[in-house]
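Students often ask why inverse folding is considered easier than folding. One informal answer: many sequences map to the same fold, so there is more than one right answer. In these notes we will look at a single instance of the problem. The structure comes first.
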């Protein structure tokens, strides 16, 4: 005699439950493998890959558990209720942390910038040194590391100067007042261009290309010229030293030009 609970229907349900368990484990393995391949393809940080695997595993096994409970006619309301309450409690207790966590995952997957890129995020400018789950670390022109919460990164305007491979393409503006005895052409030909030529000859080994210049704005208050510089990635300390040097050289030439024209 078999026990009373070993009916044909129960055996069938048990068999289906075993199939669900097997499918859950196989699906978990396939998804984790797919995440690993995707992470390698886009060069995702290892800890981000592990977190994505953990999230996928929780979702897959939770779905498997709900399926088995439903198979045996057990109510899943309590399970869903506990999950909702747990999620709400965690979210309420650590909204900032969870927000940074999700923002960090989004940044690692969408990749608006990468490590070693030169960027401007809101008011913070510098080289990206590290992208973690909670913070993006920027090496600024003051030679310090600034950590920006990833939620703030997503809420900010991001300007990436590293659009070309291994080159920082950086532009800055220099303004000059209107003077009757110095035209725009004279300012460009007698000051800005010669200064750039001397600067490039002096630092040619450190620059990817010769700097460029063009007029960017003119109004009743003055005129502005855009100076474009090109630096190799990974040489940001040289960039922090040379960019102010070029600005100062142009200013010195401007002062000399004014003195010459005033005579």
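Output (designed amino acids):
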């Amino acid at each position: 005699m078999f026990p009373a609970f070993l009916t044909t229907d129960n055996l069938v349900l048990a068999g289906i439950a075993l199939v669900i368990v097997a499918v859950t484990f196989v699906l978990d393995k396939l998804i984790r493998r797919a995440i690993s391949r995707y992470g390698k393809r886009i060069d995702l940080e290892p800890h981000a890959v592990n977190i994505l695997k953990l999230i996928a595993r929780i979702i897959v096994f939770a779905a498997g558990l709900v399926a088995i409970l439903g198979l045996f006619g057990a109510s899943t309301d309590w399970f869903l209720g506990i999950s909702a309450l747990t999620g709400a409690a965690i979210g309420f207790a650590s909204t900032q942390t969870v927000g940074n966590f999700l923002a960090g995952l989004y940044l690692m997957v969408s990749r608006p910038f990468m490590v070693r890129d030169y960027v401007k995020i809101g008011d913070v400018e510098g080289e990206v040194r590290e992208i973690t789950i909670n913070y993006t670390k920027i090496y600024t022109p003051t030679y310090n590391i600034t950590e920006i919460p990833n939620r703030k990164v997503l809420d900010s305007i991001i300007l990436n100067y590293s659009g070309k491979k291994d080159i920082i393409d950086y532009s800055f503006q220099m303004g000059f007042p209107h003077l009757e005895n110095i035209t725009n052409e004279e300012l460009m030909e007698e000051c800005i261009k010669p200064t750039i030529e001397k600067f490039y000859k002096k630092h040619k080994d450190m620059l990817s290309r010769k700097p460029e210049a063009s007029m960017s704005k003119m109004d009743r208050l003055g005129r502005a010229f855009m100076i474009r510089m090109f630096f190799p990635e990974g040489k940001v300390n040289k960039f922090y030293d040379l960019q102010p040097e070029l600005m100062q050289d142009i200013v010195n030439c401007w002062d000399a030009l004014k003195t010459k024209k005033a005579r």
